[in-house]
Amino acid sequence: MMLLENRVIIISGVGPGLGRGLALQCAKAGADVVLAARTEGKLEEVAKEVADLGRRAVTVPTDITDEAACERLVETTLEQCGRVDGLINNAFAIPPLTDLADADMGAMRTALEVNVFAALRLTRLCAPALAERGGSVVMINSAVLRHSRRTFGAYKMSKSALLSLAQSLATELGPRGVRVNTIAPGYIWADSLKWYFDYLAQERGVTPQQVYDETAATVDLGKLPEPDEIADAVVFMLSPLARAITGQCLDVNGGEFHH
Q1: What is the tens place of the pLDDT at every residue in 100-143?
Q2: Is the dihedral of CA 185, 98, 196, 117 positive or negative?
């Protein structure tokens, strides 16, 4: 289904995992994409795959914590594509995975800058163009919203702030015709998680498949979501099918948590 036919979508945090999946699923849905990340090599790899699908990919190396770099991203998009129909704030930084009582405050501030303030910065810069098109913003959040396990406190802080940001922006931008929603994935079966499961398997003296099976058993659907499955939910939120949905958070976790 060409849910995003001939639309222009900016995607931050493009890399080999979910960022790649977002770009490819948007392209399959008919969109041209503007890809932003700090590493140009990763952008070019994904851009080639988008081109192979018959859609246009514009690459803009961007540090989203830098105001001038974000301004350049939006300006390049408007110069080369003429409009912005959607924005996916996918870039993130993992804060210290330790108890809040022990976490380094500077590292926590760095994570907040990437996870929250950068998303606000980019959304504000895109807002005028999005308003012209009745566009949509999707924030990529995390299932960390649904639990309070030890060592995840700083991560939950930043992602909870991102959720509050999305809800407030939905209220502020709604009168201008711009929708703002959140997608909260759980496990994502991509390279980083595969590496981690390999590590756990070596530590325990078992196979990576056993680690996968044990983890998947905690999920209602019995399998861990893959990047394209997360990305399909994002495509839905960007599309006209979600035209009456704003200020919402959709969990995409295979049933790991119920909300």
Answers
A1: 999 999 999 999 999 999 999 999 999 999 999 999 999 999 99
A2: positive
- Name the H helices within the chain: 18-28, 40-52, 67-81, 105-112, 118-133, 153-173, 191-204, 208-216, 227-238
Domains of the chain as residue ranges with CATH: 8-188+226-252 (3.40.50.720), 190-224 (no CATH)
How many whole angstroms separate alpha carbon 166 and alpha carbon 183?
A: 11
**Distance between terminal CA atoms of the chain?**
28
- pLDDT score for 16: 86
- Per the CB < 8 A criterion, the answer to whether 64 and 121 are in contact is yes
Secondary structure, 3-state, 178-207: CEEEEEEECCCCCHHHHHHHHHHHHHHCCC
pLDDT digits (tens, 9 = 90+) for 44-63: 999 999 999 999 999 999 99
Q: Annotated active-site positions, please?
A: 155
Residues 6+ apart with CB under 8 A from 29: 1, 2, 3, 4, 5, 235, 239
Q: What is the per-residue pLDDT across 217-251, written as a single tens digit (0 to 9) for each?
A: 999 999 999 999 999 999 999 999 999 999 999 99
